[in-house]
Fold this sequence. Notes:
Blueprint: H1 10-22, E1 44-48, E2 51-54, E3 59-62, H2 77-88, H3 99-110, E4 116-120, H4 123-138, E5 142-146, H5 164-167, H6 178-181, E6 184-187, H7 192-202, E7 206-212, H8 227-237, E8 241-246, H9 257-262, E9 279-282, E10 293-297, H10 299-302, H11 321-333, H12 336-359, E11 364-369, E12 372-377, H13 387-390, H14 395-407, E13 410-411, H15 428-447
Parallel strand pairs: 3-13, 5-6, 5-7, 7-8, 8-9
Antiparallel strand pairs: 1-2, 2-3, 4-10, 9-10, 11-12
4'-deoxy-4'-aminopyridoxal-5'-phosphate binds next to helix 4.
Amino acid sequence: RHAGTRSSTARSEELAARAGRVIPGGVNSPVRAFASVGGAPRFLVSGRGAYVTDADGNEYTDLVAAWGPALLGHAHPAVIDAVKSAAERGLGFGASVPAEAELAEEIISRVPAVERLRLVSTGTEATMTAIRLARGATGRPLLVKFAGHYHGHSDGLLAEAGSGLATLSLPGSAGVTEATAAQTLVLPYNDLPALEAAFTEHGERIAAIIAEAAAANMGVLPPEPGFTRSMIELAHRHGALVILDEVLTGFRAGPSGYLGVLGDELRGDGTGDPVAPDLLTFGKVVGGGLPLAAVGGRADLMDLLAPLGPVYQAGTLSGNPVALAAGLTTLRHADAAAYSRIAAAADAIAGAVSSALDGAGVPHRVQRAGTLFSVLFGEFAAAPRGYAEVQRQETVRYRAFFHAMLDQGVNLPPSAFEAWFVTAAHDDAAVERIVAALPGAARAAARS
Length: 448
Ligand code: PMP
């Protein structure tokens, strides 16, 4: 069943009750609990292309895409075949396998700023490693991050972070020591004067700035024109490094991530050398749905990692061959046709959301960064520049909109602070199903 039927959720509710007895909050990652939208989280049992099916047999057109990894759609046949044949050869050996260098080569060929790459298992590990590298390379203690940016759940990065912390309105996490928190300077995004002031005050002690390539964990909020370039130049003038976090945007916002979308901008006026981030982190799409992430960047920095250098980093499951098969196959199928399909679907859906909300008289803004988008409910005279502005959005309206879409068979992120993800499997029929549900959801948002 799909569009138009208000469906049973009895089985999902039973499963949630059961999980709640043995798993904190019934979930292994907080936003899955429908914490801010309320209602019964759907337990999903299968997915194919643009569609997912829940435990009660309801089918949904999906705009979560596993929070990003399912770039080609769920259970893409080539990815599943590659995973099966890798699994048949063994699930992992704790020794090097040929596909590790193949994946590194694939990423290096797409992102020139990456000269060397190390594979890890989650985005959290990738950013954690990048920060340790930056501190090891510079001998400096402080890290600059931007409010509303999310870089995983390592201690130093949970200050004013996006994603689940934004959804739950948490300023940080219990369990982080003051000493650790004091090593992170949190600044407003897109605010060059604030960044300059921080470097004036602490310049000699700042190891790195970490930034999402385009913020997408407080809803989508791209860097303003010129901001990324100025940020990199400023850091470099002060001997600090820049870590560009492409865990979410990498190989999704475009074939070479958001860095590729920025392209010309990093070349400035064309007279000087293009500026580049020193380290980059990847996750989600690079693992094609299995646990795999990566940190990469300048060779001289990356070669500080053990066993060559003094910065330690390791992982029992790093470079797992089954995850490598999923990631490599996903990237190899992520060709120009796939990206143009994703862009076309994103344009069509984002445009239809706007028309439906305009039609129902609901004030809103559609936020875009490459093929990523999200919707902000409320009156915004100008494009928001940072976290303080997006926190003023009307989450009550998102909640009504989300449930009306879900009831009509469309699976949106269960939080107003997350990006919407389309896949290359979102063909005209899938887009049509989403578009058909929008007027009803817009009316629900208007009533809320
Ligand atoms: N960085 C960014 C930009 C992310 O979006 C995420 C996850 N949403 C992470 C890091 C952390 O990745 P993981 O959940 O795989 O640890």
